[in-house]
């Protein structure tokens, strides 16, 4: 059966554009459109869509208020359509907190050359949303990667394993679809003196600073968007800026954040595989790698590289993941020592970090 989609947007032009794009996918059927949440409410009842695309800003009732009511009364997969602005970032992150599966930017109808890429992204995210778990609040096939765009294009592989003597520990976390809320749950459970955490979340450049600020307000640790050359310190978490790879570098007894404009790896920048490889090479057995919910397989091979250097590794389990692509791929290749529900991951991180310090 085709995926039934309801398009909700106050702009007639955007409704027409999104509907045309989605209709071109053979497995998607746009069953209706609505110009505001009140019309959407009636069409949800009569059309029973599988997925909704929801505009953030609309008349009569804003998208966030509607989403909050929807997730309370009739939880279903929602893909937000938001502007790449500071306000758009804040509102979209709030929507993800409320249970939206993912988001796409507002289509830029003035630049025709970008619409083909936008259409591919929109269709992919609607397909993922249709299969995703709408989790209450409180498997992707591995692809052969062209070597020009593999992890080695950013962090070359080492021919021999490095032996590290530092006792400093680093926790490396990677995530994609559903990851903003999964990361929040982990960070909220970490003590203020926890080992340093480095994070690569697939997110647009316009959103990463807002995401870091939001995490800083909710975590006992100090959370920031990583800067090039920044020293990595205990009690701090560093989030990769959107559109930059985060690479961990050893400088004597210190660890530093390095930001790279290298090519997209696994279609992403930042790439989790890139960050995990740099941690494997420079931190080794003193690290803990964590792969959370996400579409695709980015991070699976890097987590395996971390495991091979003696690091502790964790993958989120299928039941608690919005999308079990990335952690599922890691489990499939034997990269995860522990496969755990989200609410148990923070405690396991601390246990593994303590074991590494005692070794």
What is the makeup of the main sheet? 7 strands, parallel
How far do the termini sit from each other? 54 Å
| Strand residue content | 15-25%
Name of the CATH architecture of the largest domain: 3-Layer(aba) Sandwich
H and E string: EHEHEHEHEHEHEHEEEEHEHEHEH
Q: Determine the structural class based on helices, strands and strand pairing.
A: alpha/beta
- Averaged pLDDT: 90
Strand order of the largest sheet: 8-9-7-6-12-13-14
Name of the level-1 CATH class of the largest domain: Alpha Beta
**Domains, number:** 2
The portion of residues assigned to helices is 25-40%
Number of strands: 14
**Per the principal axes of the C-alpha atoms, what is the gross shape?**
elongated
Low-confidence stretches: 139-148, 160-166
Assign the CATH superfamily of the largest domain: Methylesterase CheB, C-terminal domain
Q: Number of helical runs?
A: 11
Q: From the alpha carbons, calculate the radius of gyration and give it in angstroms.
A: 20 Å
Here the CATH topology of the largest domain equals: Rossmann fold
């Amino acid at each position: 059966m085709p995926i039934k989609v309801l398009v909700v947007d106050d702009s007639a032009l955007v409704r027409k554009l999104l509907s045309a794009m989605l209709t071109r996918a053979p497995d998607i059927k746009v069953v209706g459109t609505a110009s505001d949440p009140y019309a959407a409410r009636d069409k949800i009842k009569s059309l029973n869509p599988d997925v909704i695309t929801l505009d953030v800003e609309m008349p009569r009732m804003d998208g966030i208020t509607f989403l909050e009511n929807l997730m309370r009364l009739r939880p279903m997969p929602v893909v937000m359509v938001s502007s790449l602005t500071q306000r758009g970032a804040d509102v979209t992150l709030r929507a993800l907190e409320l249970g939206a599966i993912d988001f796409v930017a507002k289509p830029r109808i003035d630049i025709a050359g970008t619409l083909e890429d936008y259409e591919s992204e929109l269709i992919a995210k609607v397909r993922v949303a249709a299969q995703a778990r709408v989790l209450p609040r409180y498997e992707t096939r591995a692809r052969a990667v062209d070597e020009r765009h593999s992890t080695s294009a950013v962090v070359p592989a080492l021919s021999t394993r490095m032996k590290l003597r530092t006792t400093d520990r680093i926790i490396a976390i990677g995530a994609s679809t559903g990851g903003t809320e999964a990361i929040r749950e982990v960070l909220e459970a970490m003590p203020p003196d926890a080992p340093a955490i480095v994070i690569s979340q697939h997110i647009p450049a316009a959103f990463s600073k807002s995401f870091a600020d939001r995490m800083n307000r909710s975590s006992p640790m100090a959370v920031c968007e990583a800067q090039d050359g920044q020293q990595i310190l205990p009690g701090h978490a560093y989030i990769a800026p959107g559109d930059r790879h985060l690479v961990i570098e050893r400088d004597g007894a210190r660890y530093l954040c390095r930001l790279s404009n290298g090519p997209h790896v696994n279609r992403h920048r930042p790439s989790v595989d890139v960050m995990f490889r740099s941690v494997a090479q420079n931190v080794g057995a003193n690290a803990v790698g964590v792969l959370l919910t996400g579409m695709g397989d980015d991070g699976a091979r890097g987590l395996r590289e971390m495991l091979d250097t003696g690091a502790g590794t964790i993958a989120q389990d299928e039941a608690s993941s919005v999308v079990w692509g990335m952690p599922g791929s890691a489990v499939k290749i034997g990269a995860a020592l522990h496969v755990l529900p989200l609410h148990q991951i923070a405690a396991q991180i601390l246990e593994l970090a303590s074991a590494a310090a005692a070794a």
